[in-house]
Amino acid sequence: MTEHKDGPSGCPLAAVDRRLGDAHRLWHEAEAAYFDPDAFRLKSQLTIQTLRSITFILQNQKRRIPGFDEWYGTTDRDGLWQKRLRDIPLMRWLVEARNKIEKQGDLEAESFVRAEIIASHLDEGPRLEVPTRLFEGPEVLLRRIPAGSVSEHERAHGSVKIERRWVESDLPEFELLDALATAYGHLSELVADAHRQMGLAPPRTENHETGERFDAATLGWRLPCMIGHDQPRALLLSLSDGSRISFESERRETDLTGAE
Length: 260
Fold this sequence. Notes:
Strand order of the largest sheet: 3-2-4-6-7
Structural class: alpha+beta
Number of helices: 9
Shape: flat
Oligomer: single chain
Largest sheet: 5 strands, antiparallel
């Protein structure tokens, strides 16, 4: 996992840096819960609220940031950043989504979900569509497979492939996690610029497992682990016991004897 690393503990924007890190962690918790509708709803909405709070905390630090009113803005007059964010439809949606969560309740999801039985991992044999409903988790979908619809061999060796894509009804052009990752990118750029406005170095962006650093600006200020998730996601479950199935590829060098 890659992330913005907090600056020194004495950094005057440490609270902003930490909240940005909180949003990153919540995003990944939502990703991990993608096939659990209730958990995904909770984690994705917490991510929205946390992302929205970043500008609140930043405004609370305005006395520390030189030229804040012109650089960011005030309640009476837009500054450079306030105007910039308001001109981005996605960021306007983020404000409205947070208000809806706080004042009206849950967001409205318009999702895609599809489940089918796959009799062979070689992509051969029969496939059977499983009746699905939007807010059903994997365990419920398994229980809804019609009795007698699969043979004993298929039940012992087959799998269920579940595909899902979450979309918020007021933002149909975005997959929800991709929308939040893009919003995170815009706010990361804002936080980095706030550090520069104070004459400070922005938080370092690196893979904390490998120590590799990268230029966040070239990635739209999005972390590599938050890019490329806009397509439907798939989950494979064993028909026999409901356990998750995953495949790995491994590169090996061999000779003719080993190849046999």
